[in-house]
Amino acid sequence: MPIEFTHVPGKTHPADTTAPFFYDFAETATKLGLIEDSGFRKIVVDDSAGLLTNMDLAAQVLDRTSSLEVVLTHWAGVVEPTVAARQLASIDRKSGGRLALRMIGEPLSDDDAETRPAGHKVVWQRIDEYLVLLKRLWSNDRPFDHEGAFYSIKGGYVPRKGPHGADLTIRMGGQSGTALKVAGRHADVFELAEGSIEEVRQLMERVRGAAAEHGRASKLRFALPVRIHRGVFTTGHKAVDVSGPPAQVALSLLAYAGLGIDEFMLVGVDTPREIATVGRETIALLRNSLARRETDEFQPGAFASRTRPETRAAG
């Protein structure tokens, strides 16, 4: 499978650097067309206004694009699983199956803290139960009841499923043993943390091990957040930092691609000029380099001549 590129929006308002990417949707619509035409396959929707705003923005992005997939940032505890399952299935259905769900850990609310001890482990336990329920709601053919540690459902049923059903792509991340245990059970795409090539490789091995416990190691794909610098740039998304001309950026990412990473999530590419340049140069250069590498690997003696350690795929 070829490398995919995902656009992670930053702050781009000309007069207010705290304004989100979607501050003016008329202007954003123009950028979305450019993003779609520049080689990006996906875009992350993660607005500071919260989950319900994210759902609305995701629907608008999908409505204004023809092939761009939306990675909708989502967390448990804001809406009930039955409500979320219906809304997400509706968005996915209307888009023709271009929705992916990005589950992130979120602290428990004050109300939750009054009834049960809050903490990292509890947060991920709730995410686990939430995802189990979403998948069940997206696949069941009759209503069901559920009584769990965090959710109680009576007659849970979503009559109009999305095109993926329970196979809607789930994206997760994390580094703790608790987070990896839940991701190993549910994640189709694992978003890696920043780090050196060796640190990223080690995390990939840990994630594969967690997924293997559920017979899912071969189904897991990896995405690496990458921040492209254009001077001083700040963002809430952690990412591997790269800078320099497009060829240098592509060369830096080539080493990570050798680990078996399937997707680069590019942060810091927000103006029309930056989007066009990255698409025309960095993305094109990296794809061409990877295509040449794949061709060379099938040539006699190719493996013997490959000496750079960072290009070895993780076993």
From TrEMBL:
<dbReference type="GO" id="GO:0046306">
    <property type="term" value="P:alkanesulfonate catabolic process"/>
</dbReference>
<dbReference type="InterPro" id="IPR011251">
    <property type="entry name" value="Luciferase-like_dom"/>
</dbReference>
<keyword id="KW-0560">Oxidoreductase</keyword>
<dbReference type="GO" id="GO:0008726">
    <property type="term" value="F:alkanesulfonate monooxygenase activity"/>
</dbReference>
<dbReference type="InterPro" id="IPR050172">
    <property type="entry name" value="SsuD_RutA_monooxygenase"/>
</dbReference>
<keyword id="KW-0503">Monooxygenase</keyword>
<dbReference type="Pfam" id="PF00296">
    <property type="entry name" value="Bac_luciferase"/>
</dbReference>
<feature type="domain" description="Luciferase-like">
    <location>
        <begin position="20"/>
        <end position="228"/>
    </location>
</feature>
<dbReference type="InterPro" id="IPR036661">
    <property type="entry name" value="Luciferase-like_sf"/>
</dbReference>
<protein>
    <submittedName>
        <fullName>Alkanesulfonate monooxygenase</fullName>
    </submittedName>
</protein>
<keyword id="KW-0288">FMN</keyword>
<keyword id="KW-0285">Flavoprotein</keyword>
